## 1
Amino acid sequence: MTDQPSPVTRISSPRMLVMGVGSSGVRAVAAMSRLNPSLAAVAIDTDTKVLEDASIERIIHVGGSITRGFSAGGDVELGRQSIEKDSSSIRTQLRQVDLLVIVAGLGGGTGSGAVPVIVRIAREAGALVLVMAGMPFAFEGRKAARIADEAIKRIRTHADAVIRISNERLVDRSDADLPAEQAFARSHQVMTDGVFSLWRMLSKNGVCGLDFSCIHTMLRNCDGFCHFASADGAGENRASVVAEGLAKHRLLNKGKLLAASQGVVVSLTGGHDLKLSEIEEVMNRLQENLPEDIWLNFGVVVDPAFDGRLAAIALVAEQWKEPLVDDANRQLGFSFNRRQGPMQGELPLETAGKGEFAYIDPTIHNNQDLDVPCYIRRGIKLPR
Amino acid sequence: MALEAIAVLEIGTSTVRVIVGELRDDGFVSVIGMGETESRGIRKGEIINRDDAMGCVRKAIKAAEENLRKEIHSVWLVTAGGQAQAKKSTGIHKLVDPADNQLMEVAEDDVAEVVELARKVSLPENRIKLHTLQQYFQVDDTMNITSPVGMAGEELRVDMLTIHGKRSAVDNFRKIVDDAPIACADAVFSGLCSALAVVTDEQRKAGVLVIDVGGGTTDFALYHDGFLQAAGSFAVGGDHITNDIAVGLQIPLAAAEAVKRKDGSALTNLMERDHNIPVPSSTQGFGGKMVRAVTLNTIVNARMDEILTLVKEQVDQQCPNVPLSAGVLLTGGGSFLNGARDLGQKVFNIPCMHGKPYDVHGLPSSKDAPLYACAVGAIRYAASLRVVDTKPSLGKKLAKLFWGGVND
């Protein structure tokens, strides 16, 4: 769908913010906001050069005192320090956000160092956090790969979901002549597709239900990681184009991953002319590849802007197991629905989680009841 | 001559402990009797069941008396003071004699007067003064003077740090002791006592922060330049870690306590993703469970990090930018948590060690020494006060009477 951005209505609720972190993330976000100027986007980097090029309205320059306006130079520790120095500006950005999508390329300094910190801050602020992380090419070396893996682990402890986008998979031998700039921009393209589909899902009403919570369920169950593919088509045979595009997508290892997958979410977006037979065609084509006992969830969004076109995204989980993370506590009602939330700090009345301290004088500090387990207040997800 | 033995009663949230000791002439504290019992009826450093608490106090004192083979008549009460806080105050004394308009030398009396003035701190009705500790003197514009006697100037100032606690909490503990019935000599702040026991003069000059992570409360005291600069206490401690574990892993409190002591670590190690810890079943109907080490440690890490960060916040608030060259010393039961010291190092960004009482004889084991830091410090504190108003012994009095003060 990215060929032509859909005309945009102002998002009222729930509020979504896209945050590009590190040079790669900033570029991706810059590309997104060019296509869709009403998307709430923020660019964060240590490198002033990158930020100047980005041409986005909302820019946060972090770590000015640490890197003096240069990049973190591949030093994760510098990236982390930079963001912690300027965490207050991040907090102000997150004040009224329900869903935060962080877009970043891992393997460098700022992205790998800063994203885990931002995720933590966002969770403490009560937002749902989805991270789209571009993984480095193999030729970038083992060190970059290790840094990226470490960062992913850290991100996982706080993020609601992580989507890894492997640069390596996006480019193959047939792309020998591909200009380097385009090769690196491919992951941005994927991120853009993903962000826009999410945005549509949140802002448009579906014919057939699929919303962020479905994706959230899926992401919880797939060990926090999943693969992502998108395709679109227009004209007469758009359904078969989309179906083939999804089934043979590079990020799905040319469709091989589908056969091994255990859970799939498919979201279709079409105009008013979307026919049932087209939905059927796409789903049938996909299901040919999928194993029989797969957990499948699909939704259709109708958007007038998509008249004559059809777009689809698929989230594919390789593994399907008991949620690794105990999210039970998130239902306790701590700062979850903050849209009409009070501006003033308030204490939850319930004694949830207070255990043996339930019926004695609470210890209050900075508007927090310190008797409530710390991991609940900080929004840390417990690995199960 | 060793002074008379001093009995110290520490009513903690997890243990009630009585230690009897004496300060010898060579500066060593010699512990000669000890009794302890698991405490009940106390939560977060305050009494919730008076009968239970009283029973524990009686039991601990009895145990100490048996151990000492002597009766205990009076004790010093160690208390966290229900979230004690520190407050700085300044006393000002004019040295100039208005009559002859001249600079005057600071005399001993002036010092005593200014200290007395600074001591008069107004506190809210519900707070009780526990200690007033003298900090720097200032003569005119010369700051940070430690001993002003003999200096000339117009005005003498002194800074005092008053540690005050919640009146009801302290009074209730005193009442329990009185009703035990035993005379309660005085109440002393536990954070200060821990610091007195584990910090040497050298460290006190260099700058050191002592954190006593107890069962229900965490106390801290910060020394720099030889003076106490900040102190306080808040009602979060080891029990909160246990409670977090119990809630997070859905296991009984007793099992949570056991698993915290045995396997809990304040550091989350990503290598142990697949390591499982068995929580044994109990006779009360809990069926046993396997929990993942990484889950357990995530819970412990979050709480411990918060406790240490809280201390850091309060210290930064009370006296910002004090260099802590001698590092951070952890005492109390919470300091035994695996990785607590490493986490402390991370939070404060300076070396963090176990604080063990120095120059002590007669403690059960050196390994457990941080547990006794508070009581040992209280003995030191009590002894230091007594030295001042020790009456000369009868023999000396007689000698003085006959030979007219030759010995002095």
## 2
Amino acid sequence: MSDNSGDSAYWSANKRLIIFCLVIWALASYGAAILFRPFLSGIAVGGTDLSFWFAQQGSILVFLFLIFFYAWRMNSIDKEHGVDEE
Amino acid sequence: MDQTTLNIIVVGLSFALYFGIAIWARAGTTGEFYAAGRGVNPVVNGMATAADWMSAASFISMAGLIAFVGYNNSLFLMGWTGGYVLMAMLLAPYLRKFGKYTVPEFVGDRFYSNAARVVAVICLIVISVTYVIGQMRGAGIAFSRFLEVDIELGLYIAGAVVFVYAVLGGMKGITYTQVAQYCVLITAYTIPAIFISLQLTGNPIPGLGLFSTMSEGNAGSGTHLLTTLDQVLTDLGFREYTATTNPWLMALYTLSLMIGTAGLPHVIIRFFTVPRVADARWSAGWALVFIALLYLTAPAVGAMARLNIATTMWPQGVEGEAVAVDELPDWFETWQVTGLLGVEDKNGDGRIQYYNESGEGMAELAAERGWEGNELVTFNRDILVLANPEIANLPGWVIALIAAGGIAAALSTAAGLLLAISSAISHDLIKSTINPSISESGELLAARISMAVAICVAVYLGLNPPGFAAQVVALAFGLAAASLFPTLMMGIFSKRMNSAGAIAGMLAGLITTCLYIFTYKGWFFIPDTNMLPDNADGWLFGIPTTHFGPIGACFNFAVAYVVSRMTEEPPQEIQDLVESVRIPRGAGAATGH
């Protein structure tokens, strides 16, 4: 949707990181927890299957990890491009 | 001391705490009133966001919502947490850098148009007002149940309490009260959950207990809790707890809740209160940590409470005799009074048979064993959380804590919503549109008056809830997903997006979502004016109205893109504004007005 031509290196790095994180976000929630359930049904976890665990706990833990990972990575990307807050 | 007195003492103490905070955190400037002076620590803001977000519905109803359906309703867990990933990466840091006070303000400034600002204000007010009705109602019900007062009186008390700290302290007062409210509600939620988990599985962490085996002394000891639950439920003719129905619809509904969550203005403005852009990123993570503490516990509470109730009704298993009427536990009696539980001995055998009448093969089984229908005639899902301490035989102060927790959850969300509404009125309508020359103290007074009026309207609507209140919640999420989220995102990620595109896009998202909902629910929710039947045969591609948010968002994106390419690109200073919003440097300087 955006005009890529005028984007700074910093903004491109941010967008790459966001896309990477959102792919994992989608794989954990829509993938592992919902749509891939038929393929993961063989993996038993605590009296049910892996997808049930992802739907009730795993996806939330992945979301948590992703937000902190993004914040941590962006802080160093800010510094690399000299746009961090003093 | 009886339970009601104890409840009044605990709830009263929690109010005293909120009032103390209100006096300490008075707002002296509009900056403090709208954004707590931007001095809130990111962890503290995370905690306040968690309380802001977790409503009476999350606290009281969610465990039951999951427990009565099982796997399929995990979509609420994912939908209401996954939105924070979108918010943390696509909205919060840039809107914090923008450094203003409200969501419509960003829309109006970025798209250099008061029309865009007003459309955003309308979306915000529709979303927030529908939400706040449910919260006021929730607070009123919590009061009436635990303190034995009328719902009406409960609503007045709730309104008065919010009035004190929201009008006095604005965002600053609300923030620190929300922190206290979070502590109250999470303690209230987890203590009974820990005890029930210990009783059933021996594991003190409910989230782990859910996937553990049943401990000694329980029916099915040695097998997994979820396996036992599946077995008990299928024996009673219910659907298996862990079964899937329609994965594509489940995914679409999850997406709808996620995008809707990310577009809710009362949550977005919480990220305006932290000092720096980096703090906004961290703060979203902390918010999710504090939300996850409850959301990882809720499915365990739901599954365990459902199992407990099934075994209470069938103490010797489904093969044996059902529970005798005079052997029902005490909490059963207490909660029958409230109308949330109800039994009726239809076949007159002195026992209460609980099963699913329409389950496969259940009619034959019932005929064979002399059952004449399900005798647990009322089984409200909220009971799973409300009666949890009693089911686990916990002392009276834990029950009182649940009362304070439920009220805290409702009040904290109501206050956040009321602030979003009042700041949109005083800042976006009065200051930016009607009377730009208003002074700082004049605007602060206007903000306080708008807050007071918003509280009165909320109490009035809580007293006289429109008949369609429940359906409008779906509209609120759909609107947030279809109107605000795409517009905010394009404002940041597309420099080419101009005012014509944004306004056309917002209207497209708004109108398609409303049309879709009205087609099935009736025009403006007036009964019998729906054009098509509200069921799977009538729905376009089988999509229920609650799932429409992402589709409305697609309309918004598509229309905005096409219209913006056909019209002139935004002026240079707007492109510079977008450039500056994208980088964190200079966030401190941009906070002044």
